[in-house]
Amino acid sequence: MLTENLLLEKKHKKNQPQQGGFAALLTIVIVAAATLIMAYNASVLGLGELDDSYTSQRGNDALAIATGCMEEAHRQVRIDASYTGSTITTNRGSCIITRTIDGSVSTTTVLANTTDNYYKKVQSVIRFTDGALAVQSWQEVTD
Questions:
Q1: Bridge-partner residues for 105, per DSSP?
Q2: Which residues have C-beta within 8 Å of that of residue 123, sequence separation ≥ 6?
Q3: Burial 77-116 (b: 16+ CB within 10 A, else e)
Q4: Is 67 exposed, middle or buried (0-12, 13-18, 19+ CB in 10 A)?
Q5: For residue 69, what are the domain limits?
Q6: Residue 26 within a domain
Q7: Cβ neighbours around 6 below 10 Å, total
Q8: Residue 76 lies in a domain
Q9: What is the DSSP secondary structure assignment for residue 127, as one 8-state letter?
Q10: Using CA atoms, how far apart are residues 129 and 137, in angstroms rounded to an integer?
Q11: Are 138 and 70 in contact (CB under 8 A)?
Q12: How confident is the model at residue 112, as a pLDDT?
């Protein structure tokens, strides 16, 4: 009887499909899917970083143009105290300089934009004292 039970048990095990290969395949598919999701997320984050970097660089370009134009405005004021502004165009962008005069104090505002439409605005207040130009403030402003 014992031998008969062993034979039946062996025969029954032969008829059952092997589960080990399926489990290994399922594990590989799960690991591959997780790896694909992580790679996708990393690439999306990388693209976001590239966009942020590009925007930052364009903003820095606009600020450099605005600073250069402000320096030019101060140079023009040293040459001609009645200078009221102008427009300057460069290969990277342009700026509009406006100057208001109130006695010995004047306010100069520069709005600069790059060729791809990034804007920065800087403003300075200068005072004439005994024929000398003194910058009282210089700052980036937002409107």
A1: 102, 127
A2: 107, 108, 109, 110, 137, 138, 139, 141
A3: beeeeebeeeebeeeebebebebebeeeebebbbbbbbee
A4: middle
A5: 37-141
A6: no
A7: 10
A8: yes
A9: E
A10: 15
A11: yes
A12: 86
From CA 140, how far away is CA 110, in angstroms rounded? 9
Q: Cβ(74)–Cβ(115) under 8 Å?
A: no
Confidence at 55, pLDDT banded by 50, 70, 90: confident
Token match 């439409």: residue?
117
Tokens of 101: 């005069």
For residue 4, is it within any domain? no
By the 10 Å C-beta count (0-12 exposed, 13-18 middle, 19+ buried), 70 is classed as: buried
Cα 124 to chain centroid distance, Å, stands at 27
Nearest-CA neighbor of 98 among 76, 131, 130?
A: 76
Structure tokens belonging to residue 78: 């040293």
Say if 103 falls within a structural domain. Answer: yes
Could you identify the residue written with the tokens 């903003």?
59
Rounded to two decimals, the pTM is 0.65
pLDDT (tens digit, 9 = 90+) per residue, 56-96?
Answer: 888 888 888 899 999 999 899 888 888 888 999 988 889 99
The token duo for 135 is 């910058």
